[in-house]
Design goal:
heterodimer, A: 443 residues, alpha/beta, 14 helices, B: 291 residues, alpha+beta, 3-methyladenine DNA Glycosylase II, Chain A, domain 3, Alpha-Beta Plaits, two-stranded antiparallel sheet, two-stranded antiparallel ribbon, 11 helices, 8 strands, elongated
Chain lengths: 443, 291
């Protein structure tokens, strides 16, 4: 029987429109806008100035602490501007713009497609390459990977978990990677197993990606210690705690991290980036992005350079579909609606979704009818109706007591609510207030 | 039959006497002394329990005033000098005085001057929009127009103007308790000292972006050009982060800055009408509606 997590979860329509479309590499953009904060932790510090010539793969901003990540030039050319540019929310964040001149790469990067199977690498070598390459979790959380790989003394990782759930509707970028780069991903997993000193790895893939499961099963024989687990399709299976529950049956208690029960999860996209970083010295300068929407001519998967501006990639994808009401960065459940089309694609952006005008507007919120559907759908076992109300009333202390900080912001409650209440929006306000309060009192 | 009646009376009288003795003993030995001034001061305070003084309610403030020797910083903004004088009289101290203040909304970005760039269809709350994104205009500092301040006001002194989509403060009702200041996620509302006849001159903008960017999204934004700074004779104006600020303590209401402001970001309110000018149009559009 396929495995899954037990508590909560919803079944949104899958709409994986682009699952048959191979990953396309678009033409190089003429300019890229690279934000300095594309990860959780402190923003990177720019180490180039306006007018400097940069080559593809060159470090342009250095990590500013342990929980931070390097940022690299994704095209070659001249740094034309360093300043504040609006991000997906419209607020300004510091970023730098590169105007493209030619296509020059720094020497040590191997940007061919050849598969390098050499696994003769030491733990420290792998981790230092990953640190240098500025790799962060590409599933959306953008947590720097080298931090995860640095195991604090006294703790031991027993198993590596690979997240191939891709539970968000519409998104297919991980699915396509699993089909097209299967061997690269398996080598990436082997490298991670060396870095973490573990002998077992489990790849969790949802049932709706049967072709990926059989592909892995076919190629897995060469790689000892790796197994593939088929999981029942359910949202949010890709959530860290949900995935661990589905694959190992163990639960991560509140306040603990996965390492406390001896596992470390990595996303498929991240594993592929790690393969490229270690075997080919290629830093994180591109990622797979799904461009999709019901009214879109050809929904497709693109391998885009980090920092490509939305309107530039749109031209190549056939322009913005008619009657688009909302452009969402990320998936429909957790993504954020873009404020304008002049925003860059960052490391954490897995999809661009065009929602029709008729579908994009929210229905008016009505009073709560106490049906408790939000409670039964919450994968963290929280009471979203209560947390939402407490945040709305500004009672953040009570909300903290009810466990508001455990919310993973999956949006199941808002999705299932028959009264269309904006539950997650309020919970986010409360969660941010509680976390801010905690940071202030820590200082 | 008679016996039962007598026994009952005797037992009840005995019980009552014992209880009375115990209660008297407890009342005498465990007496909690409370300064009678606290009750008197509580009665003098307005009793709105608005929290404007920083305490949970009027009684908490009364306790704090009576207990503290100096009473510095303890001031009821709602009652003002009038009430504080009475309180001081009760306690035999000298009263603290403060210039009465009033809340002003420092944003003039009505749809006419600040075009909408996106459509927001979520829950109506400024705090929520502010945490989610920039808002439905291009200005990351300006009023979001959902009226968190209106909800926060205990005195019904703020209303939303349906035309300008901006909150309007009724000077007569505003008690300067500061509830709206706390409620506004963008810190647009400021408490300013009241002047004669409710006259006001202030920079009606909190945009800290560079002039060009600020002006791009809002025609009446402060661009930090510094013209007002040069013309001010009383050193009331300062410019920090591309934003001018007029200190209400220093301002002598001469209106020179209003005349030179190229964008009309400086407002003059409740002045007698003079020759028609550009600024007057803006003034009309945000003046207090008569109810």
């Amino acid at each position: 029987m396929p495995k899954t997590f037990l508590q909560g979860g919803v079944h949104p329509p899958e709409c994986k429109l682009s699952k048959e479309k191979a990953i396309v590499t678009p033409l190089l953009p003429d300019r890229v806008l690279i934000p300095l904060s594309q990860h959780i932790g402190s923003p990177a510090i720019a180490c180039v100035g306006v007018g400097d010539q940069v080559k593809t793969g060159q470090v342009i901003a250095k990590s500013s602490g342990f929980v931070s990540a390097n940022i690299h030039a994704s095209i070659s050319g001249t740094v034309s501007k360093i300043g504040d540019f609006s991000d997906v929310t419209g607020y300004c964040k510091s970023a730098l713009m590169i105007e493209r001149e030619g296509d020059e790469w720094i020497e040590e990067i191997d940007h061919t497609e050849t598969l390098i199977e050499d696994l003769n690498k030491s733990k420290t070598e792998i981790i230092s390459k990953i640190t240098h390459a500025g790799i962060v979790g590409l599933g959306g959380a953008t947590f720097p990977s080298h931090v995860k790989l640095t195991i604090p003394p006294g703790k031991k990782c027993k198993m590596l978990l690979i997240n191939g759930a891709e539970c968000e509707p519409y998104l297919t970028c991980d699915h396509r990677l699993m089909l097209e780069k299967t061997e690269e991903i398996l080598i990436g997993i082997r490298l991670l197993m060396i870095a973490l000193e573990v002998s077992h790895a489990k790849i969790g893939i949802e049932e709706n990606k049967a072709d990926a499961i059989s592909q892995f099963n076919r190629l897995i024989k060469k790689h000892p210690g790796i197994s593939v687990v088929s999981m029942k399709t359910k949202y949010p299976q890709g959530g860290e705690k949900q995935l661990i529950k589905a694959l190992t049956g163990q639960e991560v208690s509140p306040g603990e991290i996965p390492l406390d029960i001896g596992v470390i999860p990595f996303n498929i996209g991240t594993v592929y980036a790690i393969y490229e970083a270690v075997q080919k010295n290629k830093p994180l300068i591109e990622r797979t992005v799904t461009l999709t929407g019901k009214k879109m001519g050809t929904p497709s998967n693109f391998r885009v350079r980090i920092g490509t501006i939305l309107s530039d990639i749109l031209e190549q994808a056939g322009g913005i579909p008619e009657n688009t009401g909302k452009v969402i960065l990320g998936g429909p459940m957790m993504g954020k609606a873009a404020n304008s089309l002049n925003i860059p694609i960052t490391k954490g952006c897995s999809g661009i979704l065009f929602v029709e005008e008729t579908e994009s507007f929210r229905k008016p919120a009505e009073p709560c009818i106490r049906c408790a559907k939000c409670v039964s759908s919450c994968p963290m076992g929280l009471e979203p109706y209560l947390l939402g109300k407490l945040s709305e009333m500004g009672q953040f202390e009570k909300a903290a007591h009810e466990g508001i900080t455990l919310c993973i912001e999956c949006g199941s409650c808002s999705f299932i609510c028959p009264a269309n209440r904006p539950l997650l929006d309020w919970i986010r306000v409360g969660k941010n207030a509680v976390l801010k309060q905690a940071r202030v009192s820590k200082k | 039959m008679m016996n039962i009646f007598i026994y009952t009376v005797i037992i009840l009288v005995l019980l009552g006497s014992v209880a009375a003795v115990i209660l008297y003993y407890i009342a005498q030995n465990f007496k909690v002394y409370e300064d009678p001034h606290i009750d008197q001061v509580t009665e003098t305070l307005p009793g709105a329990n608005c929290g404007g003084c920083g305490f949970a309610g009027c009684r908490s403030l009364a306790e704090a005033i009576v207990k503290s020797e100096e009473a510095t910083g303890l001031y009821c903004p709602v009652g003002g000098d009038n009430v504080m004088n009475k309180v001081a009289e009760l306690l035999g101290r000298t009263a603290q005085t403060k210039t009465p203040a009033v809340a002003v909304v420092r944003c003039s970005g009505s749809p006419e001057f600040r075009p909408r760039t996106s459509v927001y269809d979520g829950a109506s709350s400024c705090a929520l929009i502010h945490s989610m994104y920039i808002g439905d205009t291009g200005c990351p500092y300006g009023c979001l127009g959902c009226g968190d301040c209106v909800v926060a006001c205990h005195f019904d002194a703020i209303k939303m103007d349906p035309v300008t989509m901006l909150p309007v403060v009724d000077d007569a009702l505003c008690t300067a308790c500061g509830a709206c200041v706390k409620a506004c996620p963008r810190s647009i509302i400021e408490l300013r000292n009241k002047a004669k006849k409710d006259r006001k001159i202030y920079v009606s903008c909190v945009n800290k972006d560079k002039g060009g960017i600020a002006r791009k999204y809002c025609q009446v934004a402060c661009i930090g050009c510094g013209k007002c700074l040069k013309v001010c004779e009383f050193e009331a104006i300062t410019i920090t982060d591309n934003l001018a600020f007029i200190d209400s303590k220093q301002c002598k209401l001469c209106r020179k800055c209003v005349e030179v402001c190229p964008t009309g970001a400086i407002l003059e309110l409740n002045f007698p009408p003079k020759k028609t000018g550009e600024n007057m149009v803006i003034q009309k559009s945000i003046s207090v509606p008569t109810t």
